[in-house]
Each structure stands twice: as C-alpha cells, then as structure tokens.
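In the lab's daily routine, each protein ends up as an entry in a very long ledger. A line of letters takes care of the sequence, but it says nothing directly about the fold. The fold becomes a row of whole numbers, each drawn from a learned catalogue of backbone shapes. The protein below has been through that process, and both of its lines are reproduced in full:
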Amino acid sequence: MNVAYLNTIKKEKQYLWVLLSILITVLGCFLLKNVINYKIVALILLMLVSIHAMFFTIKPTILSAILSALTWNFLFIPPIFTFHISNPEDLLLFIMYFAVALINAVLQFKLKKIEEKAREKEEKEKTFHLYNTLLNSLSHELRTPISTIIGSTDILKEYEEKISIENKHLLLQEIQIAGLKLNHHVENLLNMSRLESGLLIPKYEWCDINEEMFRFIKNNFQNNKRIEFQANDDLPICKTDIGFLEQIVINIIKNALQYTPEEKPLQIQLGIDHQILHVSFQDYGNGIPEEHLPYIFDKFFRVPQTITGGTGLGLSIVKGFTDALNGTIEVKNIQPNGLKFDIFVPVETTYINNLKNE
C-alpha cells in the first residue's frame, strides 16, 4: 500500500467527517428551531466550519463552508425548505455568512502552512546545530587517536632497528588504545543511527547476568581495578538481549570512568524483583548539577565546564537501548558526592530458579 493511496484514504475520511458533523449539527439545530433563532444557528455552523479549518485540509473545509451555508439557507432562513430568500436583510446575512466561512477556511489553511514552514525551519536549524555539534566533537575525538596511530606507526617504521623492545611494546599499546577509542566512537555512531531508524529489534536469549557482567568488564575494560562488581548468587537465569545490555553497561561505565577522579571506584550491583532486572551503577565523582540532570540523555549534550572528551552520545545510547528493552532508567545525585544510575529491565526467569529462590 503506497503513500499516495494512504493520503487519499485520509482525505476521504476528512470529507466523511465533514458530512457527518454537519448532518449531526444541522439535525440538532433543526430539532431545536423553535427554541433557537436561525441567526444563532448561523453562529453555531460558523464555529463548526472554524473547527474543520483547524483540523482538515483546504478542500474539505471549503466543502464545509458551502454545505453549511446551503443547509442553513434551506432549513432555517425563511421561507424554509427553499433556497429562496425574500428578506433583503436575510440575503445580506447569507452572503456575509458565506464570505466569512470561506475567508475563515482560507485563512486557517494559510496559517497552518505558515506554522508548518516554521516547524520545518526550526527542525532544520536544530538538525544543523546537532550535526555541527557532532562534527565539532568528532573532529577532536577522532583526530586524536588517528594522530596517535599514524605517529606511532611512523616511529616504528623509521626507527625500527633503534627502538628497544620495551618502547616497541609501549608504541603498540598506544596504537591498540587509540584503535579501541576509534572503534568505540564509530560503534556509538552506528548504534545511534540504528536506534533512530528503529531497525534494532531485541533478540532474547537465556543467560547468566553475573557471568555476562564479568565478561563485559573483562573484554572492554581489562578488569579495571576501579570497577567493583560482586556477583549476586541469588540472581536467576534471565532471558534478555545480551547485546543491548552490553551496550548499556559499556557506555555507563565509560562515562563514569571518564568523569570521576582516577582514585574513585565505580560500584555495580545486580538485583531482581518481580521479574524486573535492576542494574545500578554508583560512582563517587562530583555528580551533576540538578538543573542539568533532565538533559543528560539528550544527544550531544555535555554538562557545561566539564573536561573535554566524548561526543555526548554515550548516555543517549544507554537511554535508547533501555527503551528498546521496554525498560526505564533513573539518575540521581548521591550525597555527599557521586552519581547513581538505576536501570530497570523486564526479564523472563527460569522456572527452576524461581523454585530455588522460593
């Protein structure tokens, strides 16, 4: 079913709504014609045309203006049940009604067009600003590891025989770190693109969340000693999307390690309650000003006057993958200092583990 056909159906529904609403309104006024004056009926019908102009396109609105004028003339202006108007005052009133109804329809239509253009302009400006922000961030974030890789490889090629084995290992380590940074940035961009396109569909599978958490930390952070995680032995086997969960964990940990002092730990805890998996991350940094907390999941948002680094995509990706799992995420400052993220994701648990826990 193509877009043109869908638009045709939508327009046909507008015509149908115009006909039904005028029929119901006219019928109601006709039943009360001994109570309300025909001039009052004109105001009621004119209000109905205005409502149509607000929600429908120009052609259905013009149809509303014409039908309302004709039915008002035929059923309410003396002599009724005829289109003849004997009173010059009534004739002038009819002409004015018809003119006002048409002008109202056209003006409302033009107003909607102006509003649409204003919205489009605002969206374009917003998109342009976001792309500028992204390019400015990437120009720094990508240039640094690329320069490191190029510089290190040039040194290895030019001074291969003069460099000690220890220095070679250091240069190779720098290349590896820079490569991992590049891979992380590219992966974040791809993930954001997939999230916005709606192409990511969860693939649920049974897993041991404790084991997966250990794997995430080992593979991505080389068992960084700042990351404190102890397995929850009471946690049942759960069914969720491991890939989505990994992206959530990686991006929150990277964010915490980047913006907290090097000597401060990051604590991770797991729990489950009524088939809701709870993953909490608590750091001991400076926290975030309360006025900025509602915006930290927005794309490219970075708290003002923070250290340089990062594209501002990490936490928005966390929010996107959490939403994809039908979960929720909460963030709050911890006194005296620190920030805590709480992820709540619905999961299915095994029957055997449920019996064991009971």
Notes: Strands lie at 205-207, 227-229, 238-240, 266-273, 276-283, 328-333, 339-346, 348-349. The two ends are 52 Å apart (CA to CA).
